[in-house]
């Protein structure tokens, strides 16, 4: 086994967080179930937002019309008031008091020279041109000519070609404000409802995805349980006769003449027996539910030992010096790494070394195995961790399945990435401190308090 070592070649941020595991079951859901709910939710939210915007725009236009109608009502009331008496300043003040709840704040009759004849309240504007309808601070100022009948009642006569007297009012558009305030509340409620609809759609989609993942796990476990019972019996029944066959074939190889056809055939028997032995060992390892024997392990030394277990291929190491130690089952984790490295060496061209890296990522250690082969087809990516799935003629399809089980027993994850330049990269991410140990430490500290 040839390899090259590059110390400290892999540097990463120590405060980075553990990346989320890829969703291996997303493709098993139909498109409309994976995306339809939140798409419908977004559409409903957009409709609600559009309705809120349309209502707000139309209310603004209606508010302006309502403000004009309110001004007309004040002038109509003034005309009725003038017909019944000849007003003076006190009468206008009385009229102002009567209309104050409706928003009237100032009223004046101004002669042709611009001098107020009668007035009540405090004005904020100064324009006197007839037809004026302008906002002034929080009010609207309206200027209209004094109607001829009202002018005769008041004894006003235009002269000198100048415009006749005008009536000036200033009022607060209280009705329009209430309408706009109610509209703002309704718009806010619509936007909140739209956000809730989107949130519910996302939660529903997530719930369907979670249900699908759980269902897939249940189905997978059921299949494994059924297959496991059969495989366990066959493996035990085959193992002993196979060991006897292999032993006698090896003895036969030693006794036959070198270079003879008989010895070549006997060597083939030994080779095939070893392959079957490897298969039965993997099957038994796959079915094994043993417990972990954790101890402090140096990830770099463990990785080199796993690479040394591989007969063929060239491995190049990239180690971060500040990795430290982890608590793990050394034998099982070595087997898991060896499975991945073996697959990488088989996939990579002979002139391209497999790159094996170890670095720290926050409270985790990441083992990376990168090959430069043809990569994994997209249709196969969701099946590579399933038992007995393989594209190799002589493969068992259990290597990655066993690796995943070992990694999950260590509370870790294994992920497939597709780096630029082709090939595939597997990352085995394990916690430096096992979850059970963290719970025990937390319980001890809680008890101490």
Task: Please tell me about this protein's structure.
The chain has a domain at 292-448: Histidine kinase-like ATPase, C-terminal domain (Heat Shock Protein 90, 2-Layer Sandwich). The chain is 52% helix and 17% strand. The protein is built from 9 helices and 13 strands. The strands form 3 sheets. A 6-stranded mixed β-sheet has the order 1-8-10-11-13-12. Strand 4 and strand 5 (139-145) form a beta hairpin. Helix 1 packs antiparallel against helix 4. The model is unreliable at 3-28 and 439-449 (pLDDT under 50).
Largest sheet: 6 strands, mixed
Order of helices and strands: EHHEEEEHEHHEHEEHEEHEEH
CATH H-level superfamily title of the domain at 292-448: Histidine kinase-like ATPase, C-terminal domain
Shape: rod-shaped
Fraction in beta strands: 15-25%
DSSP summary: helix tally: 9
Taking strands numbered 1, 2, ... along the chain, how are they ordered across the largest sheet? 1-8-10-11-13-12
Q: What's the gyration radius in Å? A: 44 Å
Regarding CATH, which class of the domain at 292-448?
A: Alpha Beta
Mean pLDDT: 79
CATH architecture of the domain at 292-448: 2-Layer Sandwich
Distance between the termini: 54 Å
Oligomer: single chain
Q: Identify low-pLDDT runs.
A: 3-28, 439-449
Helix content: 40-55%
Total beta-strand segments: 13
Helix/strand/pairing category: alpha+beta
**CATH fold type of the domain at 292-448:** Heat Shock Protein 90
């Amino acid at each position: 086994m040839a390899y090259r070592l590059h110390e400290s070649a892999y540097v990463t941020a120590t405060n980075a967080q553990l990346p989320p595991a890829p969703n291996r079951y997303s493709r098993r859901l139909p498109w409309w179930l994976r995306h339809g709910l939140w798409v419908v939710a977004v559409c409903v939210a957009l409709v609600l937002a559009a309705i809120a915007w349309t209502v707000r725009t139309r209310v603004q236009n209606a508010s302006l019309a309502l403000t004009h109608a309110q001004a007309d009502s004040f002038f109509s009331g003034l005309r009725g008031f003038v017909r019944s008496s000849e007003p003076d300043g006190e009468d206008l003040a009385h009229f102002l008091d009567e209309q104050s709840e409706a928003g009237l704040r100032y009223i004046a009759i101004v002669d042709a020279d611009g001098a107020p004849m009668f007035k009540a309240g405090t004005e904020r504007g100064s324009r006197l041109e007839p037809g004026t309808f302008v906002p002034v601070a929080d009010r609207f100022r309206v200027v209209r000519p004094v109607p001829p009948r009202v002018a005769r009642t008041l004894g006003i006569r235009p002269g000198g070609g100048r415009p006749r007297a005008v009536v000036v009012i200033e009022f607060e558009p209280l009705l329009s404000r209430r309408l706009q305030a109610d509209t703002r509340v309704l718009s806010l409620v619509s936007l909140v409802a739209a956000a809730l609809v989107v949130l519910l759609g996302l939660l529903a989609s997530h719930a369907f995805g979670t249900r699908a993942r759980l269902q897939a796990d249940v189905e997978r476990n059921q299949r494994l349980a059924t297959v496991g019972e059969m495989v366990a019996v066959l493996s035990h029944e085959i193992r002993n006769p196979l060991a006897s066959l292999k032993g006698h074939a090896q003895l036969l190889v030693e006794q036959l003449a070198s270079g003879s056809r008989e010895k070549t055939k006997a060597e083939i028997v030994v080779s095939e027996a070893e392959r079957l032995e490897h298969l039965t060992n993997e099957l038994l390892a796959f079915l094994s539910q043993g417990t972990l024997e954790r101890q402090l392990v140096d990830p770099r030394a463990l990785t080199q030992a796993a690479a040394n277990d591989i007969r063929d291929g060239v491995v190049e190491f990239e180690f971060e010096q500040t990795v430290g130690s982890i608590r793990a089952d050394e034998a099982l984790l070595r087997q898991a790494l060896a499975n991945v490295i073996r697959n990488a060496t088989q996939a990579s061209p002979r002139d391209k070394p497999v790159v094996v890296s170890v670095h720290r990522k926050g409270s985790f250690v990441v083992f990376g195995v990168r090959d430069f082969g043809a990569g994994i087809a997209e249709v196969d990516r969701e099946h590579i961790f399933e038992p007995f799935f393989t594209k190799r003629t002589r493969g068992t399809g259990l290597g990655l399945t066993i690796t995943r089980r070992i990694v999950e027993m260590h509370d870790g994850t294994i992920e497939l990435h597709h780096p630029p330049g082709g090939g595939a990269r597997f990352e085995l991410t394990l916690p430096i401190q096992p979850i059970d140990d963290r719970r025990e430490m937390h319980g001890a500290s809680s008890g101490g308090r």
